[in-house]
Amino acid sequence: MTPATDTPVGHADVRTTGSTDALPIAPALGLSLDAARMPRKSTLVTRRILLISVLAVILGVASAYVAQLLMLLINLITDLCYYGRISDVIGPNAKPGSFVLSPADTSIGAWVILMPAIGGLTAGIMARWGSRAIQGHGIPEAMEQILTNESNIPARMTWLKPVSSAFAIGTGGPFGAEGPIISTGGALGSLIGQLLRVTANERKVLLAAGAAAGMAAVFGAPVASLVLAVELLLFELRPRSLIPVALATVTAVGVRYASYGAGPVFPMPAVPEPGSLALAGFVLIGGLVGYASIWVTRAVYGVEDLFEKLPIHWMWWPVIGALVAGLVGWIDPRTLGVGYDNIDALVQGHFGLAVLLSFGALKFISWVISLGSGTSGGTLAPLFMIGGSLGAVLAIGLNQVLPGFHIDLRIAALVGMAAIFAGSSRALLTAVVFAFETTRQPAALLPLLGGCTAAYLISALIMRNTIMTEKIARRGVRVPSEYAADYLEQVAVGDVCSREVVTLRASQTLAEVRPWLNDGAPETRHQGFPVVDETGRVYGVLTRRTLLDPQWHYTQTLGELVTRGPIAVTEGHSLREAADHMVAEKVGRLIVVGKDDSRRLVGILTRGDILAAHARRLREARESSRHLRFRDGLKPRPATDDLMEGYGHARGSKKP
Q: Which residue, 449, 475, 501, sits at the end of a domain?
């Protein structure tokens, strides 16, 4: 009878996604290596990255032209709805370059109240009979697909999202175009990843590449788009993902430059370098705007909760939100549409205190109610206008109270824009780099870093979820909030494995082994035992269950029960490689062999050993201690044995 053993699986997965060096060994070692087909080579990147990079470049081109097409569609709808023509967008009198047509100069009077309702109704109808996933601002929905659905976005989203957003924004909805473009680019990348034979990780990279390329094409900000992909979509910082996404953003910006030129999206006049007091003021402004971002986030989801209580079908909610946006737009037409021209005015210092107060408050009311109603549109541009207005107002106040600070209103507006995004989304680096790339104002870089960091700090202390994660967190999706180095990568197998291993001989019979197991001695309580041959070399591994299985006759030798070589790692492997190998091979323990002699048994590594290794990580994070004392003459305290408690043993030592 053939013994029942686990079938070795997962070699290809280990080779491509984890360790390539953790190899099963057997007495015929060379044959085992040939059968495994897992050469010892770096897993930093593989040749697959060339294919993914080529696809990312194609995505960069496609996303750039899709972005241009969406902006054209928004402008066409705006021109038709508010000016009764399309000549501003198409024809010999069309405006040159990249622009977003503003409804602010319309002369249709009170009809402006009803105009956004057309877009709201269109978005509601498309959501009901197309996909409800088009509702919202795009990034949370992409995050959810990455985290829960292996980056598989339905193909219909590649046209449902941009068309619904174009109608919602073009008819006067107070949204930015960047969210729908990011969502559309991500859907396009996911579609390519579903049509081709790629892994889930590669499909995630393609999704992020398409999304980042869309944002880069709109704002000409390749680095900020790359960082946004890392902070909000990829949840990792690895070469295999960075390289394709970076190539996609560079390509998309290259297409933008070829179409519209290389100027900044939000040109800003030269501003003086801030002094130390002014810098302190900008940090204070950033912290205050960051606190405001918490309430902005709560307001958005509070409005959503109120709409959930309405006794009408959710398809009609966007119409109600759009009517509010239209009413606010009738009061101040500058709140309608994308409003990139308002951002220009803010960073150029064209708004006075009265305009800043009224415009900021009205834009906030219009955007929060419209977005909370479930329509389709972006958050970045509205947040910039709200935060920029608040930053400039705070700067005016500080200059009145502390005139010696000399706070520049234009830099303050820019800091407010970036700080409210950093606080509400906690994408710190994205906010700083984006504000710099879109204005190309080097004097603002230090204030941006200080202000956004203050906003990030306040937000992280008070608010658990962000404007990007609250919606999906309510549905039970856990979103990574920190990107830390893998602790298991830092620990070698040889540092934590059990060195004193109880082995059995291949020549022993079950008649000899079973009474020994039934004695109940401490050394018999292990769940697996390495089997060695006469020379002491590893022959295989047998579990306690197999040894006591009554289907095997007591006259059988242990060597007859071994049907495959043990699954092994060397002392030099990391615990991450070992853990990956355990999962791939579906085993709970690994034989540890020497670095120089892969047949020499050194120890055994169990899942318990891997878990125990985390004790040091937890201690370093939770326990406070002093290592220098002034009364000791600043001499370092000597290391004690208890410092290594819970870690296994010191490097190079043996377990007792």
A: 475
Whether the CB-CB separation of 445 and 415 falls below 8 Å is answered with no
Domain boundary among 451, 475, 499: 475
Distances (CA, A) of 464 to 141, 169, 233, 473: 19, 30, 18, 10
CATH number at residue 373: 1.10.3080.10
Strand order in the sheet with 601-606: 568-570, 589-593, 601-606
Rounded to 10 deg, the angle between the 276-308 and 409-425 helix axes is: 50
Could you tell me if 136 and 471 are in contact, meaning their C-beta atoms sit under 8 angstroms apart?
A: yes
CATH code of 527's domain: 3.10.580.10
- Bridge partners, residue 136, by sequence: 376
How much is the pLDDT for 29?
39
Angle formed by the axes of helices 445-462 and 428-439, nearest 10°: 150
Rounded Cα gap, residues 286 and 459, in angstroms:
11
Beta bridge partners of 378: 176
Question: Within the chain, which residues score under 50 in pLDDT?
Answer: 1-42, 640-656
This prediction has a pTM of 0.81
Cα–Cα distance, 232 to 246 (Å, whole number): 15
- Expressed as residue numbers, the domain containing 427 is 47-475
CA 199 vs CA 147, 172, 208: distances in Å: 14, 41, 14
Token pair of 115, please? 């105009």
Contact 428, 392 (CB under 8 A): no
**pLDDT at position 597, please?**
65
Domain match, 491 and 465 both: no
- 545 and 455, same domain (yes or no): no
